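To: structure desk
From: M.T.
Subject: fold request, one chain
Message: Could you run this one when you get a chance? Sequence is below, nothing fancy, just the single chain.
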Amino acid sequence: MRRRTLLVALAVLLAAVILKYFVLGGREAQVVGAQESIPMAEKRLDNMRKVAATVPGKEEIYKKAAAELAGREQGLIKADTVQQAQAALGELVQTIARSNGVDARGIQEFRDKVLNNDYGEVTVAVQFTCGIEQLVNLLTAIGNQPQILATNEIHVIGGSDKQKRVQVRLSVSAAAPRKLLPEKKGAPAF
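Reply: Done. Structure tokens follow.
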């Protein structure tokens, strides 16, 4: 029993000696000398002061750009989902048409596509019959809306009635936040 305790104590002592001299013993703290001179440090400090002096100007430019972006993004269609954005655009087009005396009740199709990382586009297509002057007024009214709207397609077919009415198929697009549009799975990324 005594011999066994002596062997265990000797093994612990041997392990401590090996740890101290072979594992930890070769590492001594070294003092690092100065890498640069005082004039070089003063030059670096001067450059840093110049950079720091430009920060308030850059912050002002950023604030102006952010305010301008917020103003422009007020023209985006406001919705929580792409379907709500399409419905809002369809309702907007029908309201504009009604205010110009055009009966554009039926919506033929809805589409959406991604424009870039921040914005997407929702499109609605409507078909109606109207006079040519009503069509011109309708297109002008679409362009005068505060929302970011554009006419994608317009197909005009002349009528044979005495009132000179034309059949029109019109696709109107609106800008929307990219987060509304679903991720396309399996589509190649460019």
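Reply (cont.): The chain has a mean pLDDT of 82. Let me know if you need anything else for the meeting.
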